[in-house]
Structure formats: structure tokens, C-alpha cells
UniProtKB/TrEMBL annotation:
Biased composition (Low complexity): 425-451, 460-471, 494-550
GO-annotated biological processes: DNA replication
Function comment: DNA polymerase III is a complex, multichain enzyme responsible for most of the replicative synthesis in bacteria. This DNA polymerase also exhibits 3' to 5' exonuclease activity.
Taxonomy of the source species: Bacteria, Pseudomonadati, Pseudomonadota, Gammaproteobacteria, Oceanospirillales
KW Nucleus (keyword) present: no
Sequence segments annotated as region (Disordered): 384-553
Name the record gives this protein: DNA polymerase III subunit gamma/tau
Key word Metal-binding present: yes
Catalytic activity: DNA(n) + a 2'-deoxyribonucleoside 5'-triphosphate = DNA(n+1) + diphosphate
EC numbers for this chain: 2.7.7.7
Subunit structure: DNA polymerase III contains a core (composed of alpha, epsilon and theta chains) that associates with a tau subunit. This core dimerizes to form the POLIII' complex. PolIII' associates with the gamma complex (composed of gamma, delta, delta', psi and chi chains) and with the beta chain to form the complete DNA polymerase III complex.
Amino acid sequence: MSYQVLARKWRPRTFHELVGQDHVRRALVNALDQGRLHHAYLFTGTRGVGKTTLARILAKCLNCTAKGEGDEAVTSTPCGTCEACRAIDEGRFVDLIEVDAASRTKVEDTRELLDNVQYAPTQGRYKVYLIDEVHMLSTHSFNALLKTLEEPPPHVKFLLATTDPQKLPVTVLSRCLQFTLKNMPPERVVEHLTQVLTAERVAFDESALWLLGKAADGSMRDAMSLTDQAIAFGQGEVRHGDVAAMLGTLDHRHVLALLEALAEVDAAQLLAEVASLAEQGPDFAGVLDDLVGVLHRLAVAQMVPAGVSNAHGDREALLALAARFTAEDIQLYYQIGLQGRADMGQAPDPRAALEMTLLRMLAFRPQGVPRPAQTPLPLRAEVAPSQPMNAGNEASPATDIARDNGEAAPTPPSPPAPAAREPEASPQVAAEPPRAAVPAPRPEAATEPASQEPPPWEPYPETMPEALAPEPEVPKPETPEAVPTAEALKPETPEATPAAEMAAPEPPVAAEASAESSVVTPASPVAEAPDAPPAAMAPASPQAPSTSGPLDQADWLNRFESLGLGGLTRNLAAHCVVEGDDGQTLRLRLDPSQSAMNAEVHHQRIQAALAAQGLPRRLVVEVAELPTGVETPQARAERLAAERHAEAVAALKADPRVQQLQETFGARLQESSVTPQTPTS
């Protein structure tokens, strides 16, 4: 007996042997068991997914005589041993008329076929017409078939199969029960091939079956045919190397090696892998396609590890590799890969195009961001704040913080005031040098700026009111003999006066009082002024060195804007809280969601900024969950922005003009469009 190919030898003969297509099998089995049989069925799907097989199984179910001869003997489990079942399996059943519509497209062929519809079946219970590739029929053939397809005789069933249902007339589709068969996933193909090769006693590598499953592209018949070819190519065995050589496909391990080099940020290793690939003469465009496909699977592995397909038998390797990339890097590499694939046709050399695409991935990787030791899977999205910061608030969060504390907006750091050199200075003046420069403003001068501040929804004027203008510099007194201790305080007076002006701005009318109060005597200390605002009681400058003790969380929040950080370094510091400070080492705790930015270069910049503020510290940043109830500088800025936005919305709602518009025109205030204005100077 001649050899029978695997695709025909292992063709399913019952519904229970059918691989996949559970949704179709369930519907047909239930219809057969309940006796609810339609007169026309349409099976659609790509090649090799079981359309003809399902039609033949259904024909056996309709004509099996194991349970009797009448219509009530129709079963969903054909016996396979009765005369009708054996005849259908062997292709000699008279009442199963298989028609190849691709070779019989003329209307004359269709009329000849329909001339015999009226006659009763010769051998079986039903006369079954199986028309394969029905979309190839001509328009006249469809028109000739319509009436019979709509109202056939009771003993006739039509089974239609096609790979292109879009070409069928709507009038035909409306007369049939349509079942769409799905493509076979590689996992299902590998599972079935394992059973077949085990039964055939053929040695195989599982990785070789994954190559066959991918090459089959959803078709089980293609997979069986390729397996036949692989057995012949490998002399009775199915081995990975033989299958890869037979298919001419790229070994998947080379793609994983390229991703390993990207994870290590190793350009030399990356080029070495490309050189190793070039020795095999691959399709470099196909290499890039495979790389982009694996990047997509890595992104899925980071977000939903359970959703990673095992299409190449490499699921565990992908999960381990996904933990070595940040989500941002995966998205960046994917986008660069797609763009490189589009540009490859314009490149003079495909290999050079691949190398440039890979090097571009490394070149555009954010600098200063270290390789993550381990990215926790799955990734979790951060909880967004209730009101996002607008552009204006992002540009100057320092102003909001200063306004919240009742202080003036901070200015660039100024050099610290020199200490008094004369030992004859009074103890009180030596103990409190910043207080010596703080003027004692009149009560009306302290409250006047708040009353003239414009509402939060109105823009600040470019020219500040006179009450908000900075105080002019006070000239140095020319008669120091008026006060006995003036000589000891001369070095402090020029430096302290601007600091006092920055802490509590005053109108020009207070210039004389400021000049008089800049020279302090032991008999009248400034600390006795009861009406001074809290900002005036603070140290003269936020940038002055702190000698009062270690840095705590409140100091960290107040000093953050004066550090002058920017870019990724600022973002890193803005998500930290103070863990502890012993005067030598400052320990910060970083939000785990920002751990990808934790790099030594940022630590050095923060240390330099602290040292410039008179706080030389060795910085230690630990990644851990932040304590509940403790604000980071970023959280504080967002809170202030939300409060300012709520204040602006409330002020707009209370505005008489807005209320009049609402009452007259039925207008509504779009709260999301409200943008609080910040001072311009």
C-alpha cells in the first residue's frame, strides 16, 4: 500500500477528534442532539482549519444508521463502522455530492447539479451537497441556486465552504447558518503534532515543533504537511537545526541575544551579534520584524504576565528578560524598530540599516537612567492626583509654596552674611544675627499687600502695585557715632538689609523705619515687635547655612526650590522624603515608582546643591514605600496647585458677572478650563 500523508491519515472523523473550533463543534452537536437541523450551513475560514472535515463529519452524523433508519436516529456521534460511515470515509458515498466550485463556475453546471435535487437519496437518509470554494461561482450560478437554497426538499442538505465569504452575495449569506472557523494558535498546533509524532514513533525536538507551528500560520493542514517534509529532511527525525535549515527561518535565539545586548546597554555585543547573524545570510528585514514582535511580547509580559503567549516555547525566558527593561525603554525601542523597518527600503545596505536601528535604540535611551536590576511584574499604574497641575503651576511651584507659608517668592541664592568680627558686640546681637536686620513694619504695612492682591482668576499686572514693589536699598548710615555699638554691626548691615527686604516687602513709606531699625541696640531688640508677620520672624535667607541641627522633612520641603535642581535630578529629588540626617549622612527615601531614575549622577548633583546651601552631606537614597501622611515636594506642589485651582473656581462661582451670565444665558462654568494665574515677578 502506498504511503498516506499525515494530513489525510490524521484527518478527524468525529467531532471529538476535531482539534480546536470548539465554538462550531458545540453548536453543531447541540443541534444534532436536539433535532434542530438547518437546511444550509456555511463554513468560512482560512485554508487548513477544518471546513471540509467538518462538512464530512456532519454528513456522517446525518446518515449514520447505527441507531436506526429514521430521522430520529440522527446522532452527533457517528459510529464509523456502519456502511454509510465507511462509505463517506472512503469517499464512495453516493448521496454525498462534493462539488469543486472553482472548476464548475458556469451556470450550466449549477443547473445540471440542481436537476437531481428533487430525487430522493439512493443510499442514505439525506442527500448532502458539499460545495467547496463556493465564492468562485459566477453571479448567474448564484442566482440559479437561490430558490433551491432557500426552500430545498426535506431530504436535501447544503454544506458550503469558502475562504472568502466577502465575495458571497448577501442573498446567499441570509439563507445559511454561517460558522467562522478560527486560525490554529501555535500552542494548539504543537500539542497536536506532539500527539501525532508520538503515535508515529518519530523522534522530535519540542523547539522544532514550535518552528513548525509558527510557519504553519494558523493552518493545521500546513503544519502536517511541513511535518512530513521535516521528517523526510531529517531522515526520520524532527530536529531543531534541521527544521530551521529547511524553513530558512532565523533562529529565535539570535533575537533573544540581541535583546540581551540591549538590556546590558552593550553596543559592542550588539554589533557582534549582528555579525554572527550576517554569517547565516538572513533577511535583515525579517530579523527586525522578529525583534519588534518580541518587544511587543515583552511589553505584554510587563503589564500582564499571564497574557504572554508561548508561541516559541520561550515564555519563561521572556518573563525573565522583561524584568530587565523599564516600560519606557520597551516602548521607545518598539517605536524605533517600527521606524527603522519603514526606512530599511531606503538604506543602501540592509545590514547597515539593522545596525543603525539597534544603535539608535541605545543612543536615544535616556541618559542618566541606570539599567534596572529587576522590574517588578506586573507593572502597576500610579494613582493620578485629583487635579493635575497646569502649565503655569508647573512653571513656578515655588511661588505657590511661598504663598502657602505667607512668604515672598524665593530668589536665587545669595552669599551668606559674614559673622561679626568684634568681640565687643552684645550677646543678644551675636546670638541672633538674622534678627538684627529684620525691620519692624507698621501693622498697616504688613496687611496692605494682601488686600491689593488680585483675585486668582485674573492675571497679575506686569507692573506691580506700589505696595508690592520691592523696597529700595537703604543707604548705609553716615553717622555711626549715634549708637555706641554701630561699629560692631557695620559688616552685617549691608548684607542683612536685602534679606529683610526679601522676607517682608514694604511700601516706600517704611524706608525710614527700616533704616532706623537696621541699627539695633540692646535696649530695644526687634524681637519685641508683636505685629511682625511670620515671614519676617524667619531666618533672613532660606539659602543661609543651617547650624541649628540635622535636616528634617520640613526643612527639606522649604529648601527644595532653593536647591536649583532641574531635569531628571529635580524629578528624582521631588519624589523623596527625609529618612534621617545625622549631620554627616542624609538618607532619603525614594518612591518605588521612580526607581528607574535612581542613578549616582543625580546623587552627586543633589549633594552639590546641598553643599552650596551650607549643608555638606553624604547622600544615601533608599527605594522603599513612602510613609503614609508624609508629603514629597512633588505631592506638596500638586496639592498647592489643586488648592489654588479650587480657590479660583470658587471665586469665579461667587463673581456677580459670572452668576449673571449663568442666569441670563444658562451658561455653565467648565471647571477643567480654569487656569489660576501666578505672579510674573
